[in-house]
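The freezer alarm interrupted the setup, so I double-checked each line after restarting. Inputs confirmed:
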Amino acid sequence: MKPLEGVRVLDFTRVLAGPFSTKILADFGAEVIKIEKSGLGDDTRSFGPFQNGLSGYFVFLNSGKKSVELNLKDEKSIQLIKQLVKDVDVVVENFRPGVMKKFGLDYMTLKKEKEDLIYASISGFGQSGVWHQKPAYDLIAQAIGGIMSINGYEDTPPTRVGSSLGDTSAGLYLTIGILTALFHRSRTGEGQQIDVAMADTIYSLLESNIMRYTVDGETPHRIGNRHPISAPLDTYKAKNGYLAIAIANDALFNKFAQVMNREDLIEDSRFYTDFERAFNQKALKLEIENWLKNYSKEQAALILDNEGIPCAEIYNIKEISESNYIKERNMLVQVDQQQYGEFTIPGNPIKLSSLKDKNNNVTRAPALGEHTEELMDQYMNQMVEGGRES
Amino acid sequence: MKPLEGVRVLDFTRVLAGPFSTKILADFGAEVIKIEKSGLGDDTRSFGPFQNGLSGYFVFLNSGKKSVELNLKDEKSIQLIKQLVKDVDVVVENFRPGVMKKFGLDYMTLKKEKEDLIYASISGFGQSGVWHQKPAYDLIAQAIGGIMSINGYEDTPPTRVGSSLGDTSAGLYLTIGILTALFHRSRTGEGQQIDVAMADTIYSLLESNIMRYTVDGETPHRIGNRHPISAPLDTYKAKNGYLAIAIANDALFNKFAQVMNREDLIEDSRFYTDFERAFNQKALKLEIENWLKNYSKEQAALILDNEGIPCAEIYNIKEISESNYIKERNMLVQVDQQQYGEFTIPGNPIKLSSLKDKNNNVTRAPALGEHTEELMDQYMNQMVEGGRES
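Predicted 3D structure, all chains:
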């Protein structure tokens, strides 16, 4: 039995944040029934990159789900959904607050169909309050959530995190909320509502930077790649690119100085302790890059690795994707999208011993409306029967 | 009943990734018993910022947990833990792979004490494989995981995300794994092992950038704050700082042009469609900043907000922390650390309707060893009795 086998999720989410969450549920065996707009489907079906006309963006976010095409402005569709809700455990949506209510599919309405329903929403800024109608673009959530103010170098403008962290972090937190609610329901029989806002999840990822403000009144700013209180812990320029080096204690620093043939640095009062090295990190960086200019990043990484000095090359997406590491961890898996060919999509980073298959239980994404008929047959009949009985 | 009430977590984690995960479990009502190194405790007890000598870093990550001081190299402590394990649901640890085995506390050993144990580990690069002994600094995980290669501007070096995303993302994914395993156990009676690697979780957050590589063979690079296929969707310079504007369709763009008194842009063939605007985004940016130079970012945000143009000021940590939004969402909460005074720490971003108290169920962090005696009394007695019986 897969961990979430038998859990039924009715998924109204579109684009990134919501589908990112329900994709994790699908990977663990939940039955995720994705409701898609008649004729068009999820917006991401028209986002690139395409392989034989099928969107890779859509496939990676929706593999393992079912697709049902419905027009939410059509009364019959709403009646069908209300029938279906009686048999589902979780409803997930990421419309702008108020839209599900306009459809007649808000929590209070659906709760009448199923008392112990779990109803999970992602929005930019919460289901109510000052900014709840603000649009939920990732850039907007990152701008308001504070992370752009501490991402980047001293001399660069505020910097958006280079992937859609507002969406993905909201997806992860929502998944935690849904699983917590499922566990709660398994013990109490009670459903509940979950409200996750992208701006809140970005704010949560600021971690100790928030404490520096609330305790010391300090406003942390951008400091590039270096560490605020340790050195050398930064990226350093080698002959052909950058290398990350992470040293936070004296013993390792002494070893590092020896590797560089610079025992004099050990005796240098500017670099005696981690505290002094952090204070004089600019001068220390010059010394390190003076050594690194003789080596490629690959050579330097090899030398330091051999001596047990924590370091890493900085991989681009091709390099990490082609690494033995990613292969070994099954972090890229293949799904067979039939006439569109095989797609290579990210694997599940949560390795459960109860789910040991190499493909991480990942299966292909559905065609638009692939499961409409199956569901229609079942629930339309129930509706007719329900009608006859009453 | 709180959602995770009665769930007992034995928490060997230190510093950030692990404590970030078990803190979420504690917020939802789990009993988290934090095992701390005798005399010293979690490293973060000595990290700033300090208030009256108590670490704010420690408090925010460990509020709501219990603290038990033990020396894991002491045989009596190990025996005590084995007794305790019989009564816990989840063990969590983030030592370097192999360390728990050296202590005699690996999964296979503890499973003998409790057959259905859930055993959850965070490491830099997984419990086995090519890089499993590589140290798990956040910088190292970010460097290898690929995100630094797409974070920052075209002309800046690879850029570390400005908060410890390697740690926090691993903490979030591990929490999802633990909750999935708890649900699985509630239905099957089976425990399991969970292996989450920081490099994998960073890789997972690359989202569609991975698809651009696997489908098109493209290696995405840094592009600053702009959107790869829509414009104007970027940050723009106003008189006193930057503003985020997010427009991805023609109707909104036309409105925006009117607001700027630049109806000519609507007729400009370079800006006809989203596709053309993205292609000519540099020229478009000049036009927008030419308008913005007459306004402060606050003034411009007000004008655009009023017209329904998606935009946002870019808040620093002080600005977002002091906003009405954060207050309204209870994203900062107070905990009373007794003689150290009140601490203001981040609230829980997952708003569950079953947990409606204003403080998000967050309580204070423990003193080092505050719960040692309570536990010793209970389990030492059991060990003696166990000894007598056999």
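Quick read of the result. Chain B has two domains: 8-205+325-389, 233-318.
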